[in-house]
Amino acid sequence: MGRAVGALVLAFVLMVSSTAAAIWWTARQDSRPSSDAIVVLGSAQYNGVPSSVFEARLEHALSLYEDGVAPVVVTVGGKAAGDQFTEAEAGRDYLAGAGMPAEALLAVQEGVDTLESMRAVAAAFAEQGWSRAVLVTDPWHAMRAERMAEDAGIEAESSPTRQGPAVQTRTTQFRYILRETAAYLVYRVTGESVAGAPGIG
Q1: I want to staple 76 with a disulfide (CB 3.0 to 4.6 A). Which of 21, 108, 180, 192 is the partner?
Q2: Cα separation of 140 and 122, whole Å?
């Protein structure tokens, strides 16, 4: 009995550590294949103004667009109760203000977490006849975002931003890796996002 329990504990530790290592490895990659669209995962916005986390993602997406990675940038994300703007609207307007043409922007105004957002983006891709995407998010979020996008039917690779609060200190990075490890494992086991956990879903 003791050996069985020990084996289960060891298997759990190995699963968690290997997942954390994979998240760390994916965070260090920067894939920029020619794609149908660059997809920016939403984050907080304040009365239509992107938060510092969201702004870092948008600036990186703008750089990818200017480098010719894709002809369209898709911003995605809904809004919380009481908000006047969706994350997708705030992101689209920010990029328009930075000089991107309207025809190069698509706002998918749905999704309160990564899973809902990826499913909404997949529906928009199907309408447009698109299949390939480069995802822009924070480094530690990249592996889970890629997995959810692929499960939704999108051929996805990621080009994480290297700016913003999520990458400022080693302590912050370690905390995000722990959170993402838990969120990724929950998704792989249940097929759902973590409920009631702001910033993780």
Answers
A1: 108
A2: 22
Q: Which two tokens stand for residue 148?
A: 């959810």
Location of structure tokens 């290297």: 162
Per-residue pLDDT reduced to its tens digit, 88-142: 999 999 999 999 999 999 999 999 899 999 999 999 999 999 999 999 999 999 9
Fold of the 2-190 domain: Rossmann fold (3.40.50)
d(CA 89, CA 163): 22
Q: SS in 3 state form for the chain? A: CHHHHHHHHHHHHHHHHHHHHHHHHHHCCCCCCCCCEEEEECCCEECCEECHHHHHHHHHHHHHHHCCCCCCEEEECCCCCCCCCCHHHHHHHHHHHCCCCHHHEEEECCCCCHHHHHHHHHHHHHHHCCCEEEEECCHHHHHHHHHHHHHCCCEEEECCCCCCHHHCCHHHHHHHHHHHHHHHHHHHHHCCCCCCCCCCC
Q: Are strands 49-50 and 45-46 parallel, antiparallel or unpaired?
A: antiparallel
The token pair at 171 is: 């302590």
This prediction has a pTM of 0.88
Tokens found for residue 139:
């480094």
* Confidence tier at 37 by pLDDT (50, 70, 90): very high
